[in-house]
Design brief:
single chain; alpha+beta; Aminopeptidase; Alpha-Beta Plaits; eight-stranded mixed β-sheet; 18 strands; 24% strand
Length: 433
């Protein structure tokens, strides 16, 4: 009896120590030649927002090969892959697919040479935001998790999303009935290439990790005249200059110093030649914040300052600056419990020294946030995947995202991303949060 009791204790202790199952790293390592080749093909053939036809076809075809049920052209060129593996939680894992309209200058042997049409003009195309890494990691994770299906139960919901770069794709897929048709997930996970973290590392924050993003246009009206007769005008270029400078006081003098916000005027358009004072100038702004109340304050002050500049210039009521405020994309918020689970997953795969578990928030934005901001309030986590080659880390030459010179270190980045994400999925499927 004593021997039986000891044996039972040993069995139970062993089961407790073992915890959730571990990924098979050998499976992932053996898949790397295929994945790197897939990555380079996608890098050479980027498609810009709303034009991801061939990209989505390629991803859909690969998912079908490993047993996913795939729906194509869902919310634009969006794809939804479903793998049912018994009773358990449903987990959403999303990748974006679109490239940017810009010419690549990396001089890589697999550099993009493709051009596209945008608003009637020919433009270059480039995966300068790492979406090719995202897609390859997503596909590699799908292939790995299927080979490990004896280690988990549940449903994996893979989202191939279009139009992230214009902030539209997530809404397009949700408005097409993503959750209504495929079910509401228990958790959502995503990742983004980091242009500052070395390949082989990941960064995972808790709470707010990316800001909300809002676009604002301001039409500044005036009275035009000859450039040599400024006294006969109300110069909207001068008014715009005053307005731009005043807008910079919102963050420094109106927003609580313990909060964060950005107000940037990115475009000024007005006039044709130097000797004509125009009657209108258009400013285009981006506004970033983490909290709705901060965003509301910034919007209020933009309208007040614009009107104040108009009054000071003596503009009549019908020529006051027109402020056009568009709906803001929500901030990305990492559910602390899910983030802690993913940190543990990453640590078990790549070691604590390669996991930055307090990655600070940034003012960049990402429409992944929409998947957790519906009425269902799905808890989500969005982490940074290091991509910077060792040579670039040593040189300090770190082009940012959207730079024509940005490129990742494919092999290490992909292997790290597949390993960390696969383990995170296994842990989420096997552990109740």
């Amino acid at each position: 009896m004593r021997t039986l009791s000891i044996l039972l204790i040993l069995i139970l202790s062993s089961a407790f120590v073992a915890g959730p199952p571990a990924i098979d790293k050998k499976v992932i390592k053996n898949d790397m030649p295929f994945l790197v080749d897939f990555y380079k093909t996608r890098h050479k053939n980027p498609e810009i927002s709303l034009q991801e036809k061939e990209t989505s076809k390629a991803l859909a075809a690969e998912l079908r090969k490993v047993g996913f049920s795939v729906t194509e052209n869902f919310g634009g060129y969006g794809i939804v892959g479903v793998y049912k593996n018994g009773n358990g939680p449903t987990i959403l894992y999303r990748t974006d697919m679109d490239a940017l309209p810009m010419y690549e200058k990396t001089e890589l042997p697999y550099q993009s040479q493709l051009k596209a049409s945008l608003n009637g003009e020919e433009v270059g195309t480039m995966h300068s935001c790492g979406h090719d890494i995202h897609m390859t990691t997503w596909l590699g994770t799908a292939r790995a998790i299927v080979t490990m299906k004896d280690k988990w139960k549940g449903t994996l919901l893979l989202i191939g999303q279009p139009a992230e770069e214009i902030g539209a794709g997530a809404q397009m897929m949700l408005e097409a009935g993503l959750y209504e048709k495929f079910g509401v997930p228990n958790y959502g996970i995503g990742l983004h290439s980091s242009p500052t973290l070395p390949a082989g590392k990941v960064g995972i924050g808790k709470g707010y990790v990316m800001a909300s993003s809002q676009s604002i246009d301001i039409n500044v009206y005036g009275v035009g005249s000859h450039g040599a007769s400024p006294h006969m005008s109300i110069d909207p270029i001068v008014l715009s200059s005053m307005l731009i400078m005043e807008l910079q006081t919102i963050v420094s003098r109106n927003v609580n110093p313990t909060e964060s916000a950005v107000v940037t005027v990115g475009t000024i358009k007005g006039g044709t030649v130097g000797n004509i004072i125009p009657d209108m100038v258009t400013l285009k702004l981006t506004v970033r914040s983490f909290k709705d109340e901060v965003l509301d304050l910034v919007n209020k002050r933009i309208k007040e300052i614009a009107r104040g500049v108009g009054i000071a210039a003596g503009l009549p009521e019908d020529k006051m600056p027109e402020v056009i405020i568009r709906e803001a994309g929500p901030a990305n918020y990492n559910n602390p419990a899910i983030a802690a689970r993913v940190i543990e997953s990453a640590t078990s795969v790549i070691g604590k020294e390669n996991v930055i578990d307090e990655e600070p928030p940034v003012m960049l934005s990402e429409d992944f946030s929409y998947y957790g901001q519906t009425v269902h309030k799905v808890p989500t986590v969005f982490y940074w995947l290091g991509t910077v080659p060792d040579s670039r880390m040593k040189s300090g030459n770190l082009p940012g995202l959207h730079s024509p010179y940005y490129y990742p270190q494919p092999e290490i980045s992909i292997e790290t991303g597949v390993g960390v994400t696969s383990q995170a999925l296994l842990d989420l499927f096997n552990t109740k949060i």
